[in-house]
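Board work, copied verbatim: DUF317 domain-containing protein
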Amino acid sequence: MPVSERQLAAFAAKHAWRIPFDTSPRHLAGPGDARHVTHGLATAGWTRTSDPLSAEIVLTSPDHRLTLQLDPQSVTSAWWRLRAEPTGTEPGWYGEFGERVPAEILGHLTDALIAPPPTQRPDPFQVLESAGWLLDSATAAHSADGMCHVEQRRDQDDARAYWHIETREPGHGTLMGPRIWHAWLDGRAPEHLVSAFITALADPAPLQRGMYDRTAHHSVVQTPSPLTPEQVVEAHTNRLDTVRAQTRAARRQQRPNPATAPATTGVARPAARR
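↓ predict structure ↓
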């Protein structure tokens, strides 16, 4: 299900008239445009397997192992759900993300999902500390404004530590107020996906939001962006071009090389009689 010219034109039409504002910190930027996620997966060959007339979107990977569900009518606080079915060599895993998780941050995770795993995987807490976050312990950190918290937790009945990330209102006489959004990845999720999400979350670079886009909190800081609306659209299409190139390269690597493939042997047939 490649992204069509019509779909790209619809994305451009939405953003062409919006004056972009640099919006920070990222965890308060609001949900943004979900097509930062869905367009990337569609470009990588994921297909929609849900009812086209439904508000719910379910995208399935080409090997049918992975599914991403976006349900804006969900009765729970998780609008995004990412599942991987177990295989003979790899365990299944699950992740969920709240309504106001910035789409660009989730898109960084899904881009890592369809790209080759990196050879070096940075420690998420080192990434956070380098970005100015404060470490509460060896397995917990919070943003400079105290509103976003990253924690690696462990259940008593599971040896694998899972990841819990949430942004909350400032507490009034308490440590934390009501929750704004959350993200959760179980202990079997690939480490490079966790690193991708946290790296994008900690990135000090602002996200672009339109003048009337919904943000996650009134304390978010917005200033006029040096980017034009056309440059915002161009950045989106350039990212899709990168995803497309990575997908093609991965498919070429998966194809057997005719030069190294074993020769096919057959049974010799007797000569035909005259």
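The first strand starts at residue 21 and ends at 24.
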